[in-house]
Amino acid sequence: MLLFSVQVHVPYSEFFQLEALSAYHRVVSLEDFMEKLAPKHWLSGQRKAYCFETAAQRSADKKSCPMKDGNPFGPFWNYAGVEFDASVLFSGISFSAYHQPQWMKKFPPSEHPVLAMPGAPAPFPVIEEHVGLQRYMVWSHRMVKEGEEHISTLLTRPYVGIHLRIGVDWQNACKLLKSGDAGPHFMASPQCVGYNRQTALPLTMTMCLPDLSEIRRAIKLWVKKISARSVYIATDSESHNKDIEKLFKGKVKVVSLQPDSAQMDLYILGRADHFIGNCVSSFSAFVKRERDVHGLPSSFFGMDKPGKVNQKVEL
Prior knowledge:
There is one protein chain. This protein is 35% helix and 10% strand. The protein is α/β, with parallel strands linked by helices. Helix 11 links the parallel strand 4 and strand 5. Helix 12 runs parallel beside helix 13. The chain starts with 17 loop residues before the first helix and ends in a 15-residue tail after the last strand.
C-alpha cells in the first residue's frame, strides 16, 4: 500500500493576525493580491519568475527558475493558479536589507512590479538581526481560543513544554555532526551556541539528538525547579510519555496531543511555564523567539543555562 501526503495551502490569517504585520511593513495576503492586484499589475501570460543563477541549475534547461520543483513549492503556486512565462536570473546580490539599493536599481518597480521567487527572500535559519521580528507574528483569535481550550482541558499549571526532534530524518542529520561534516553552526544552532562563528560554543550530539537519559534528566530538572504539575510533549516521533510518567510515579501529568496542525504544538509550547527545546531545530527556534518576546524562560537539551554547554564527556 502506498500512502501519499497532500499539501494543503492554508491562508496566513488562519494561524496569525495579518494586521499585526502591518506595524512592521505594508502587507497583503496572497488571496487578496491574486484577486485584486494581480489582474492589474501581474497579468497572466506575463508572469516572470526570479531566482539565483545557482537555483536555475536544478531545472532541466539550466536557465529556468524551479518555481514548482517539489513540495510545498508546486502546490503553493498551483493553489494560487499561477503559471510562469519566463525566468529572470540574478547573482551577486543577497537578501540583506543592506542590499536594498542594489535591488531597486537592478529591478526598478516600474519594470518589475512583482518579484516572485522560489522561496522566502530571507536567509535560513533566521539571522540574529531578524530575531526580534517575531513580535509581529501574533496568533489569530481562533488559534488562541483553541490553544487555551487545550491547555485548560489537558494540562495543569505550572507545566513544562518540551520539543523532541528525534525522528529518523533527524537522526540522519545529526550524524553529520558526529562525523565532523557539520560544525557548531548547524541549521538553527546559532540560537544557543551564538551567532558569531569565531566565538561559537561547541555543538554536542546531546544538543542535536538527546537520548532518553538526557530527556529524562532535563525534564526532571525543570519539573523540580518550577514545581510543575504537567509536562507537554511535542514530537516528530516517539513521545516517550510512558517513560516520563514512570519517572514521576504518576504524580505529574504527561500529555502528547499530536494535533493535526504543528502550529497547535507551537502555541502550547509557547505558553508553557518553562520550555525545553532542541538547539538545532528551527521548530524549537520559533518557540524560543516567541517566548523571548514575552519574557518567558527557555532552555535546551544539553544546555540548561543560556551560553553554557552542559559538561558531559561524549565518546
